[in-house]
Amino acid sequence: MVQFSRACLRKFGNLVDNLRLYVRGGSGGMGLPRLGGQGGNGGDVWVVAKKDVTLKRIKDKYPQKRFVGGAGANSSVRSLRGERGEDKQIFAPVGITVTTDDGRILGDLNAEGDRVIVAKGGPGGSRYTAFEPSKGQVKHIRLDLKLIADMGLVGFPNAGKSSLLTAISNATPQIASYSFTTLKPEIGKLMYKDYKQISVADLPGLIEGAHINKGMGHKFLKHVERTRQLLFVVDVCGFQLASQTPFRSAFETVQLLTKELELYKEELVSKPALLVVNKMDLPDAEDKLQELKEHLQNPDQFSDLLPDMIPKKYMTFKHVVPVSATTGFGIDHLKSCIRESLDEDAAMETKAIHQERLQALRFPSHEHL
Fold this sequence. Notes:
Spo0b-associated Gtp-binding Protein, Chain: A, elongated, 14 strands, five-stranded mixed beta sheet, alpha/beta, Rossmann fold
């Protein structure tokens, strides 16, 4: 169901683009004074980039969000040098920035296999420390998905995304009457009177079957992951890629776009989203807009239009905004809606972070067990 009120805010349960974790290096092992034996060093904690991992999966698999390196072995008569503790690896998605709680950058994970050490293990006891071992480093760290833009334009070819980006921002993307004019993300900046800037990315054109890597396929969908919110753009009069492909109404287009995102990665459908209904300067546009709104209010009643591509979950749009990128109709209202949606989102994130920190202050003891 489409919601037009401010009450439709982001739910934090499904979409996770940042995560706060407790990490502690392993404690060192005891030294052996009478034989000069040295305890093993504690294991380190690493964050390692791996494909097919999401922050949501880390959160679900490790609800305590607590990672500790292995303890170093004590020195003994049989083994004067104690074995080193086992390192702990936290597998995280590619495209992550790892920071401390106060914002200091520890490293970036830009490719599979990239590694960042986040907590060093404590040294084992030796004659330099009176054979007493040390504890490992303790930190709270953050994993943040690096965003290419605040808003990502999602739409099939010829929905008018490039024209829309030109109309709302300072970008000058390549615009033509053939399908695939956008081959890489084009980033535009929306400027507001109070000097606030919002970045919008026109992403490479999506087609049916993108989830199985047709067309730009996965390349496109990876970019979608790295935008804070989505801006669906549909032609009010519908869409047909080529003469041999079926014609899709605006409503069908919305559901097909949703299904492509869902089939690639379900949590993408939980991103906050706005719907831009473009080309309102065309004949019969008002009638078609009303029809689209009716269908979106009761999508289940019209699901038979898409027998093979019904999404598990229909998109909930915070705003449905009719515009004409050609004439400029609705552009100022769209910019206001984008600003409002991102401001609401930022306020909710700030509140969630404050609550998390307050919880940690109230119940700190378990973290040092």
